[in-house]
Amino acid sequence: MIRVTIQEGGLWKKYSSEKITAFYKGYFYSQKISAIIESISSCDNENLNELIQNIDGHFAIVISNENLTIAIVDKIRSTPIFFSQIDNVFHLDSNPNRLTSNNKFLNEVNEDAKLEISMAGFSIGDKTLYKNLYSLRAGEFAIFKDKSYKVYQYFKYFSDVLTSQINYQETLSKITKNIFKKMLTDIGGRQIVIPLSAGNDSRLVASILRELGYSNVICYSYGLQGNFEAKTAKLIAKKLGYKWIFIPLKYQNERSFYLSDEYEEYLKFSETYSSVPYIQSLSTIKYLKQTNSINEDAVFINGNSGDFISGLHLNYLLNNDFQNEDAYLRKEVILDSIFKKHFLLWGELASNKNAKQIKKSLWSEIESQCGVLTDKKNDHIFYEYSEFIDRQSKYVITGQRAYEFYGYEWRMPLWDNEYLDFWVNVPASLKRNQSLYLDMLKKNNFAKVWGDDMPVNHKKISPKWFIPLRFILKIPFVFLGKKGKPLWHEFEIIFLYYWMDNTRMMSSISYWRVIKSIWKKPQNHVSWQAKDYINNHIK
């Protein structure tokens, strides 16, 4: 027996025909959802993989008839689907809390997932925090029939990267424009809201919309008063002719928000049991809604995740590259890169024993999906597969829940199918320091906002009153020679970053708590999120 407890409402919709009941969420390009559902329900298993792979959009779908149920998530797992099996009954839902709240059977903790979430904020592979709770991963669908089920992977972010004769820059420019044209046709003139920063990705979104002649756009920035992100964003919005809103994040206001019932509701709303919730900019969306600054049917578009897909996260791996062709040593470089990038939320947990366990789990997942290391030129895609299937699809992309929590739709053009298919085949040499991506942006110069007068990520210390205090505190470290720089960096993170954090996410915890944890070597706000997450779920 199969019980689907997804509830119609919010962004979830229901489709019914004579023999089919389906629930779906998301947006679909080029095809009507009714046609997609009917095609899937009548398709044989052999052709189902290809059919689903060709669906263009970001979505989740659950289709049931009297014989079986098919559950599908898109290639990036923008909306998770969860399931459990209890007494030969399958339970499926988009809200895992409905599966866990009334069932003690699901309370058996997965100790491996517990450690992974504690160290990175997300689990590795198909694990959730509870042993008997499962979720589909990015690019998967499952068929439930009678007393059994089977999970199929129709897409994975991995490719044997081959040298191509194509002009990568011209191709990337063409694809980028196509993606946004397609998206704008789907949005159909509704208001677009862009969280605009000083970086590349949100600037790309805003500038190409202007390049394509779309005028119904509002940009907003947030953070400490006078911060460099907001200053640059203001200049960009002005040049583009878009309205710009600045939302100051004051410590006391943010601290109160993170202690509110509303915040607790969001944590429940965004629950996945495979990562901590993504909380950045949550209060700013609330502000825009409460002040009626944006339309009720507005669509949010952010730059998620241009930095990852274009290669920025590969720098550690590529900068530690060497000529040794030994597969074991190359494997260790890949694993060390992943571990140091993502699994150091708490220095006290980074023991040799834990590091060995984490790396074993990482490689088991990578090797099962990507095979063995062969050609050295493909090492980078092994790294990218791991980050994509775990951190990106489980943690980063769940940031879209913030828009949904306040009732808004979203689009993620930089996670479009065309982008996935293009970037997975780009050689490491063109991803190093994002060279291909940045060259494309500079050459196209969409809407003329990529000049030297509008620098990218030109970071400056905020708030201004903090600058002289920081200078005074830094003086003793100068006299320590070579040891002084790393010690100062550690001191700044522990004692000062709390007040310099432009996002104010550090306000989710008390300063006193930060100070008390000095010897445990926390990395950032996610460190405490992960600790609280585990403590709240495991009594």
Strand content: 5-15%
Number of strands: 15
CATH topology description of the domain at 168-304 and 407-417 and 438-448: Rossmann fold
Number of contiguous helices: 23
Q: Termini separation (Å)?
A: 32 Å
**What gross morphology would you assign?**
globular
Radius of gyration: 23 Å
CATH architecture of the domain at 168-304 and 407-417 and 438-448: 3-Layer(aba) Sandwich
Task: Return the structural class.
Answer: alpha/beta
Q: Can you offer a commentary on this structure?
A:
With 539 residues, the protein is an alpha/beta fold. Among the domains are: 2-81 and 136-153, Glutamine Phosphoribosylpyrophosphate, subunit 1, domain 1 (4-Layer Sandwich), CATH 3.60.20; 168-304 and 407-417 and 438-448, Rossmann fold, CATH 3.40.50; 466-537, no CATH class. It is 45% helix and 14% strand. It has 23 helices and 15 strands. The strands form 3 sheets. The protein has a 6-stranded antiparallel sheet, covered by helices on one side. The longest helix has 20 residues, at 168-187. It is globular, with a radius of gyration of 23 Å. The two termini are 32 Å apart. The mean pLDDT is 92.
